[in-house]
Amino acid sequence: MTPTLASATRPRGQRDTTPASRTGVMAVLLLAAFYFLMPIWWLIVAATKPAGHQFSGSGLWFDGFGLVDNIALVFDVNNGIFGRWMLNSIFYSGTAALIGTVVSAMAGYAIAKYAFRGRGVVFGVILAAVLIPKVMFTLPLFLMFNQVGLLNTPLAMLLPSIVSPFGVYLASVFAAQSVPDELIEAGRLDGAGEFRIFRSVSMRIMTPALVTIFLFQFVEVWNNYLLPAMVLNDTSLQPVVVGLVGWSASNGNVPAGTVVVAAFLSIIPLVIAFLSLQRFWRAGLTAGAIK
Amino acid sequence: MTAVTTNGASARVRRWRTPWLFLTPFLLLFVAMYLAPIAFAFIQSLFTLQRDGLGLTAPTLAFDPFANYARVFTDDEFIASLGRVLLFGVVQVPVMLGLALFIALLIDSKSARGRGFFRLGSFLPFAVPGVVAAVMWSFLYSPVTSPINGFLESAFGFTIPFFSDALALWSVANVVTWCWTGYNMLIIYSALQTIPAETLEAAKIDGASSWRTAWSIKIPMVRPALILTTVFSIIGSAQLFNEPTVLKPISGGAITSTYTPLMAAQAQVAAQNYPYAAAESVVLAVLVGVTSFVFFKITGRGDR
Q1: Into how many domains does chain A fold?
Q2: Hey, what domains does chain B have and what are their CATH numbers?
Q3: Is B50 helix (H, G, I), strand (E, B) or coil?
Q4: Contact yes or no for A285 and B246 at CB 8 A
Q5: In chain A, what percentage of residues exceed pLDDT 90?
Q6: Which of A14, A273, B181, B211 is most enclosed, with most CB atoms within 10 A?
């Protein structure tokens, strides 16, 4: 564990609060929780209702059980294209995040652990790139890919997704915090090469940070809609978010009830990732806040 | 940097070269996927498409460096989309961040119970991809299926016209707020956690109330986090695309294909007006870059 991943807790006195303030605070928090959770709850409930009844009855409570049939239906529409979309999403997000994490780790490590001419410029450019969102580059990317004939290939999705200035920034923050200079020096005295030290010493220490970077990038690629919507026309190459929007805009060619169930299925992998890897999210957000 | 004594000269060369070797994969991809497309779009924006009167032959490109930019700044739909996004940002960003700060302070307050639940509950929408959230809200808004209106109708006898001309933009804003409030709240909350306990203890000894402590100590101390989230939110508004695009088919015409600048540029791509789309993208990228730069300068964080 790096120090950043441990959450700091303050001792809090519980006695000096009044029942009125406790009630007020809890009432507001419950209201907020209702706002944030109600749509997701509605989606879960609707997905379990029998086919064709997604919008009947109360939106907030169960009414019959058809989840299994509904799922079978989703995987059946258009010759099972939904399964293909899910696999595409996993492939794009997994591949881009894996390669991207290694690329970012190397770059961030170099910035944090070496003094070299041009370091400030490189870091400045990366910070500027963090501030300009990727979406701004998507139309230009489309125009360029159109020129070089990369449209409608997985590379058109993967290559831009691998680059993550935010990942480099996180890697440099984490490397500066967690990899001691003495350890690198010790490796050098033992005669290990710089890359060897990076791979077998620094990478190992940075592992929790690398999980965070991987997670952020995986979700970013999974959620990216504009890029695949523009560069991938072939439905069999599209990720699930593009496919789902296509279904949603199909004017009823795919029944609205089926779209609801598909939307529910498409968020399950991410919700599981969030719930099980919470501490890594905290680490990334904290690093973002202290810059 | 002190060089290790063994093999002085070659070690120094190695030390000089190593960081650049580590940086090479990233820099190559960065140049190819960030700088090259922008340069390409910029060059393309300097040309115009010349079609012959009947459209029988393929259009040809003619070098005319200002034509597209002149058109951008007189394009009523593009200007209107910029104005719409500006209005969106001026209202939605303060509302969302105010809500995020308020919830963060409440969860941080002594009166809160179940902090973990509320933190996670607010953050969970962030796990839902933006377009999937928009698809979900499209069902909650849809005149046909809306359970919200179903409830309001039966309980109070009125419904909300989510896609009336007056409300459509705020229906979009609600989806964005729903997705991002928890994310911003968590950044602010993390910053609140770094306030030293002694500082808060001192305030209490001085007799400061919870409100006073929040206003005079906590909020000033999380100022960097607030600035950061503001900048990211402003940038997020400028690139508004996913939510209105998904809601467009069910909006009954309230959301047009040029609703936001990015949608307008994308519509030009779809119409294969590549040079003009390139000009709109360049203008938009410059506007976003200048806005965030100016904001950082104003708030005094650019100096560091």
Answers
A1: 1
A2: 8-63 (no CATH), 67-298 (1.10.3720.10)
A3: strand
A4: no
A5: 49
A6: B181
Pick from A279, A124, A42, A164: nearest CA to B147: A42
| Residue A74 maps to a domain | no
Q: Is residue A123 part of a domain?
A: yes
Confidence of residue B228 (pLDDT cuts 50, 70, 90): confident
Scanning every residue of chain A, which has its alpha carbon at the shortest distance from the alpha carbon of B178? Answer: A36
Contact B147 A58 (CB under 8 A): yes
All residues of chain B having their beta carbon less than 8 Å from the beta carbon of residue A59 are 147-148, 150-151
* pLDDT value at residue B102: 95
Instruction: Give mean pLDDT, residues B38-44.
Output: 93
**Interface check B66 vs A, CB under 8 A:** no
The pTM of the full predicted model, rounded to 2 decimals, is: 0.86
Residues of chain A positioned with their CB less than 8 A from the CB of B277: 139, 143
A44 burial via Cβ count (<10 Å: 0-12, 13-18, 19+) = middle
Contacts of A60 (CB under 8 A, 6+ apart): A38, A41, A42, A45, B147
In chain B, beta strands by DSSP E: 47-50, 60-63
**8 Å CB contact between B104 and B188:** yes
B159 in Cβ contact with B153 (< 8 Å): yes
Contact at CB, B120 and A282, closer than 8 angstroms: no
- Give the CATH number for residue A150: 1.10.3720.10
For CA atoms B191, B128, A96, A139, the dihedral sign is negative
Pairing of strands B47-50, B60-63: antiparallel
Q: Is B40 on the interface with A (CB under 8 A)?
A: yes
**Residue A82, amino acid:** F
Domain that holds residue A236: 81-289
Tens digits of per-residue pLDDT, A88-120? 999 999 999 999 999 999 999 999 999 888 899
Query: Which pLDDT tens digit goes with each residue over A1-41?
Result: 334 433 444 444 445 678 888 888 999 999 999 999 999 99
B36: contact with A, CB 8 A cutoff: yes
Distances from the Cα of A76 to the Cα of A121, A236, B259, B265, angstroms: 53, 15, 35, 36
Contacts with A128 from chain B: Cβ below 8 Å: 289
- Percent share of chain B, pLDDT over 70: 92
Q: Does the pLDDT at position B44 exceed 80? A: yes
| Burial (Cβ within 10 Å: 0-12, 13-18, ≥19) of residue A209 | buried
Q: How close does chain A come to B266, measured CA to CA in Å?
A: 7
Instruction: With respect to residue A162, please indicate whether it lies within any of the assigned structural domains.
Output: yes
3-state SS class at A122: helix
